[in-house]
Amino acid sequence: MSNMETKEIFNLIESLKTTEYAHIEITHEGTHLVFDKIGGRQQSEASSPTPSIQNNMNMAETSAVTLGNTFYEEKTVVAAPVEEENFLFIDSPIVGTYYNAPSPEASVYVKVGDVVKKGDVVCIIEAMKLMNEIESEVDGEIVALMVQNEAPVEYGQQLFKIKPL
Prior knowledge:
Layout lengths: L5 H12 L5 E6 L2 E7 L11 E7 L5 E7 L2 E7 L11 E4 L4 E4 L15 E2 L4 E7 L2 E6 L4 E6 L6 E2 L4 E7 L1
Antiparallel strand pairs: 1-2, 2-3, 4-5, 6-13, 7-9, 7-12, 8-11, 9-10, 11-13
């Protein structure tokens, strides 16, 4: 760890477990941290949050950390400067509950790295017992999932970050 102590990072990880947020980014004294919860609510070790930690360095390395019974992977990645204006967001058109799959047993509609075409269904928002399919408005690559499965969403809330193709 360059500027942040390991203990501080573990405290952030523990704090993330108890929040409703699916994605948190923190920049502190040259260290950029990105925490993403994977899957639905915390029901087992498999659905625990998995943070990735990024520093702007000229090397790449990976190490594993075990905190209690939960496994975390720490990644230091070569990060090229990226301009935010190159990305678009898919926003929620309604207030409701976000679902990343058509049913609990089905596979998710999209995950980070997937390429979607205009009109592809990316998620469902349940509002007043109606399931509303949300479609991509552009061709692009999913860069970030901004909402945790089964989380309440507001009108205009960002659901996905997309890199247009």
